[in-house]
Design brief:
By secondary structure, the protein is an alpha/beta fold. The protein is built from twelve helices and five strands. The model has no long low-confidence stretch (mean pLDDT 93).
């Protein structure tokens, strides 16, 4: 059984999946990607018992998350699970449960991904439009497993602000690392900081994933176009908590 717990959070569309993919490359980490997100939403269901080898790697229930089945990562992690240093999950909204995590998972390491609001809001709009398109093609599709249509740029502002406020309430915390998503695959020193935070050594697989993540991000940025109008950007400028974000990023810069 792993010695400790590890969680990744931050506003949706802020690089939490990129961080999860990077961490998954380390042989001493078994990390879900919203493996138990619906369990977390029903707070009472989110317990250490979910993170045993059998439950985490091999047993799937429809009530666990929006995923319809376990992907290949989980059974492949079963063979090395007991040798892992950490087990945990990537759940963007976990910042809403910092106190619960500290109570139920003592000593857990938490990584918070930070990204500027305009990129987050544009990505929210993109996902909402994707859902609209899918619903037009298949009106009978299960909406519970799709990005909500109304979770658009305005919802992004609310979630971004909420995440900042919740995280500022608990920093500084030696078991919470604030990571700048734009810097993650550019500054190799940030990868060193991440490993030092976790007390882990560097591996070839992690370095390879870090390079692959950088290439993917560069490719995405080259093709990405903003889905925000001038009016949307102006509204974001009025409502987003830029002062709080700057304060939060000061903790990231200290890392």
């Amino acid at each position: 059984m792993p010695q400790g717990y590890l969680f990744v959070c931050g506003p949706s569309r802020s690089g939490t999946s990129a961080m999860a993919n990077l961490l998954r490359a380390h042989e001493l980490i078994a990390l879900g990607r919203e493996r138990f997100s619906w369990r977390f939403d029903r707070e009472a269901d989110f317990q250490p018992g979910l993170f045993t080898r059998e439950r985490f790697c091999l047993t799937f229930h429809a009530e666990d998350s929006h995923h319809r089945q376990l992907d290949d990562y989980y059974p492949s992690a079963a063979g090395r699970f007991d040798a892992c240093r950490y087990v945990g999950d990537k759940i963007p909204g976990l910042y809403l449960g910092y106190a619960m995590i500290r109570t139920r998972f003592p000593g857990a390491k938490i990584i918070y991904m930070a990204r500027e609001i305009y990129g987050v809001a544009s990505s929210f709009n993109f996902r909402a439009r994707q859902t609209e398109s899918r619903l037009q093609k298949d009106p009978q599709i299960d909406r519970s497993r799709l990005w909500p249509v109304d979770r658009d740029w305005q919802a992004a502002i609310l979630e971004w602000n909420e995440a900042i406020r919740a995280t500022l309430d608990v920093v500084p915390d030696p078991d919470l690392l604030i990571v700048s998503y734009p810097r993650l695959f550019i500054d190799s020193r940030l990868c060193d900081t991440l490993l030092a935070f976790l007390g882990l050594h560097q591996t070839d697989a992690l370095v390879s994933q870090w390079r692959e993540g950088g290439q993917l991000r560069a490719s995405l940025e080259a093709r990405r176009t903003s889905l925000l109008t001038a009016e949307m950007r102006a509204e974001i400028g009025r409502r987003a908590d830029f002062a709080g974000f700057r304060q939060l990023m000061s903790f990231a810069d200290e890392a």
